[in-house]
Amino acid sequence: MPPTSPASAGAQVAAADVAALAAGAAIFGTGGGGAVHTAQVVAEQVLLENGPVPLVTVDELGPDDLVMLMSGIGAPTVGIEMLSSRHQIDLLVREAQAAAGRPITALMAAEIGGSNGVSPVGWASRLGLKLLDADGMGRAFPSAAMVSMNVAGLPCDFAILSDVVGNVSVIKTIDLHWLERHARALTVASGSICLGAHYPMTAETARGAVVEGTVSAAIRVGHALLSASEPVAAVAAELGGSILLTGKITDLDRRTEDGFARGSVTIAGTGADRGRLQRLELQNENLVVLEDGEVLASVPDNVTVIDAETGQAITTEMLRYGQRVAVLAWACDPIWRTPRGLELAGPQAFGYDLTYVPFKETTR
Amino acid sequence: MPPTSPASAGAQVAAADVAALAAGAAIFGTGGGGAVHTAQVVAEQVLLENGPVPLVTVDELGPDDLVMLMSGIGAPTVGIEMLSSRHQIDLLVREAQAAAGRPITALMAAEIGGSNGVSPVGWASRLGLKLLDADGMGRAFPSAAMVSMNVAGLPCDFAILSDVVGNVSVIKTIDLHWLERHARALTVASGSICLGAHYPMTAETARGAVVEGTVSAAIRVGHALLSASEPVAAVAAELGGSILLTGKITDLDRRTEDGFARGSVTIAGTGADRGRLQRLELQNENLVVLEDGEVLASVPDNVTVIDAETGQAITTEMLRYGQRVAVLAWACDPIWRTPRGLELAGPQAFGYDLTYVPFKETTR
Q1: Model confidence pLDDT, tens digit, residues B197-230
Q2: Which ranges carry the S-Me-THD N-terminal domain (chains A, B) (predicted)?
Q3: In whole angstroms, what is the distance from residue A261 CA to residue A33 CA?
Q4: Domain B12-214 coded CATH 3.30.559.10
Q5: Cβ separation of A170 and B167 shorter than 8 Å?
Q6: Rounded distance, CA A187 to CA A161, Å?
Q7: How far does B162 lie from chain A, in Å, by closest CA?
Q8: Spatial separation of the C-alpha atoms in residues B264 and B280, rounded to whole Å
Q9: Which ipTM value was assigned to this complex?
Q10: Which one is the CATH code of A230-350: 3.40.980.20, 3.90.920.20, 2.40.390.10, 3.60.15.10?
Q11: Are the CB atoms for A114 and A28 separated by under 8 Å?
């Protein structure tokens, strides 16, 4: 299947694009366990039933459009149940529209990385809404405050949470840290899984505040991965990124702390990279790559460990001793390289005492 | 000062009535620690500044009236801070009115017992609203689901929570158990103290669903307590209740479990009651009185341990070995003696394997 073009009018995401979207979303975010595949299966089914979803750019939004982020919150393994509750989705949208005082016309992914980059396609199809070719991160981050709209200074007017039982809440917090705190508390009280909608935006407020083109980018990356004869190289080329090392996982120190997968992975180079050693620091996502004490790439730039043969992303939870992998790195969206972007999601925001150096193509 | 008359048109609660209201509210509910006195001090101050509050009956409500319950949620010792935040109250009311789609015109206490029976007077005065001469329990109960409106089958359309930080939430749950669960989760996330508004009611829905006359009753009881030469007898007479025993606390087994003060108190009779022994079972409130294996009174009927001299209520937290006390019991509102009332708040709802026998005046 041909990849969906990013900016072309009349673009849409069809059931046949979902596998590529999921493969690409998995490259963009590796913190979500096995939820991407679940989201793919559900979204494919919904799109087969309800038809494709119009994929629109910010420029294509009109004055009557209202975009909201929609996402799953909580334990990803329970996510499949959540998606099948039509009542829960309807409740969420009804309350969101009541709070906004106008109809929602388009959905946007909070983060393109992982299952939350895939599920919005299915939700949009179910609800007959458009999908914005954009997201709030251009990748995946572990905190709701680490979104481009927050970098741009756009406040989140309200958030809605609905659960499978039929409870729904409207949360208005003074900032996104409080939003996350309250949303997590409600999610735990609801049995650890909720559907959320937040950040109502118009064409005007979305412009410059969202990371554009990421849905179509994920589909292109996924397509490259699934169809190329050399998937690792093809994915790196599609992202304008680099393979920092090809090798074997020789050490793995990973623990779950405060609901985060934290730790480090050591990869010993093989083949042309024999003799080299890299260490990755991870907190849900892969955040820093070190070699000989030098930082080769760090958050907010992207680092994903992919299978050395298939190019498929390996989630941080699925990393195993002995796996043959390639370390893929590419530049983040420019918004994350601004002072406010680095304050929110630079190395120091994750507790690393290092100065951010923008990742560039190396010549090796 | 004369007690406020219950049903008379033009009735109001003035600053001079607050001490009596607080003393009475303390008799009606003993689970709230020292918060009643705090609520009294704050409400007196507000009424001195803003003037008295009109006290109205359900019959005096018109078609444009909208009543809501307003209460403090969480750690009562932090409550004093909460009351002083004008912003928090305004936020609460603004969201409540937006959710209801019309102005709130009157407040009602969720429970007349304890601080939540006193604070609404101050809130009503601040907001320029009427106070309904009624509450949702006619006493105090530890669960939000144990309200007369729930017995009457009236659903709670929504609840609002606001915190001192400036966060506010609208919660719509399928029942009051879920409401309590979600409200507690949000309250903990907000630092263990919130202001809440819930159960929007019209004159029509409130009629028969609320326990009427309880604000004026609490003021009358408090007045009797504060002005009579024999306060213990005066309070019992005002409530149409009985003193089950006068004696001394000889044993106290009390522990905090799941945020509840649970345990039992043994009281040995003195004077005319010498040789008798009663045991009280408590879960925040005093729930069951036993003597020689016989139940003398039990929830939902009212049991309060009062000071044998002053007649002042002793909260379950303040019970101490050696205290000279009287055990006061009186009948609950008839709504609690219905099958649905007993299902929600009868002995078995609190885990006691005993059949409810309505408390009557004894001849002893």
Answers
A1: 999 999 999 999 999 999 999 999 999 999 999 9
A2: 17-172
A3: 10
A4: no
A5: no
A6: 8
A7: 9
A8: 5
A9: 0.81
A10: 2.40.390.10
A11: yes
